[in-house]
């Protein structure tokens, strides 16, 4: 071997970042931008109405990004999504008409177009929360029913953070301006039923974006609740 050949540097191809990791970082950045802008606008703006008009869009964007990272978008998963959205929506219809499930309340204008007195986006919100908390509970090394209980608790925990913000910004309003304990009991009961259904439906139950979205939304609503007191 000649001297020239022996000293010629080896051409090593550059190490490219993993595509899935880059996609995840981009999605997290988009969500952080939307939630951060919304937080600053609602907390400090003199005209929060401008930012409130984007609430349905933010929910829709978050849901689409979550679904983009769902590895198994099979027919069974599609059926699960439709069933949970339908159950969530019509539970709310029954709730506002009877006042027996969650207490006496009505929806405001912030969440957009309504049907039967309930914003259409509400079904999607039930799906997102059921899906995220169900996946988070799968990190627990416990039986399926205990996971369902844990996921239902996570759903109620999110609702506790959402309620003061939702009332303040006219997502919905309660009779006598009081959030009843019945609301959280009703939420837990419906959430538990949906989580049992989640556990019994066969589809891939992992999503790398879920922990980030749940924590981001938790911080978003918890943080806003401090500014409106």
Q: Please work out how many helical segments DSSP would assign.
A: 9
Q: Strand pairing plus helix content: what structural class? A: mainly alpha
Average pLDDT rating? 90
Instruction: Tell me the strand order in the biggest sheet.
Output: 1-4
User: Strand share of the residues?
Assistant: under 5%
Task: Characterize the largest beta sheet: strand count, sense, and whether it forms a barrel.
Answer: 2 strands, antiparallel
Number of strands: 4
Instruction: Give the end-to-end Cα distance, rounded to a whole number of Å.
Output: 79 Å
Low-confidence stretches: 1-16
Number of domains: 1
- Helix content bin: 55-70%
Query: Can you write the helix and strand succession as a string?
Result: HHHHHEEEHHEHH
* Shape verdict: globular
Radius of gyration: 22 Å
Quick overview of this protein structure:
The protein is mostly helical. It is built from nine helices and four strands. The strands form two sheets. Strands 1-4 form a two-stranded antiparallel ribbon. The chain has a two-stranded antiparallel sheet with strand order 2-3.
Describe the 3D structure.
- The strands form 2 sheets. Strands 1-4 form a two-stranded antiparallel ribbon. A two-stranded antiparallel ribbon has the order 2-3.
- 67% of the residues lie in helices and 4% in strands.
- Helix 4 (55-68) packs across helix 6 (121-137).
- The protein is mainly alpha-helical.
- The radius of gyration is 22 Å and the shape is globular.
- It is built from 9 helices and 4 strands.
- The chain has one domain.
């Amino acid at each position: 071997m000649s001297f020239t050949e022996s000293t010629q540097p080896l051409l090593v191809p550059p190490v490219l970042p993993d595509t899935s990791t880059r996609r995840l970082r981009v999605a997290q950045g988009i969500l952080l931008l939307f939630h951060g802008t919304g937080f600053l606008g609602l907390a400090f703006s003199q005209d929060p109405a401008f930012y409130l008009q984007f609430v349905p869009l933010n929910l829709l964007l978050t849901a689409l990004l979550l679904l983009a990272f769902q590895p198994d978008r099979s027919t069974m998963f599609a059926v699960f999504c439709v069933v949970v959205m339908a159950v969530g929506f019509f539970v709310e219809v029954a709730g506002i008409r009877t006042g027996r499930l969650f207490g006496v309340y009505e929806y405001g204008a912030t969440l957009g177009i309504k049907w039967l007195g309930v914003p259409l986006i509400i079904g999607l919100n039930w799906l997102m929360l059921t899906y995220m908390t169900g996946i988070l509970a799968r990190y627990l090394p416990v039986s399926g029913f205990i996971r369902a209980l844990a996921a239902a608790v996570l759903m109620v925990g999110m609702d506790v953070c959402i309620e003061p913000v939702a009332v303040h910004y006219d997502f919905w309003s309660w009779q006598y301006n009081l959030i009843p304990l019945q609301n959280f009991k009703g939420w837990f009961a419906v959430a538990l039923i949906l989580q049992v259904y989640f556990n019994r439906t066969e589809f891939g139950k992992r999503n790398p974006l879920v922990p980030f979205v749940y924590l981001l939304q938790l911080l978003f609503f918890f943080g806003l609740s401090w500014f409106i007191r």
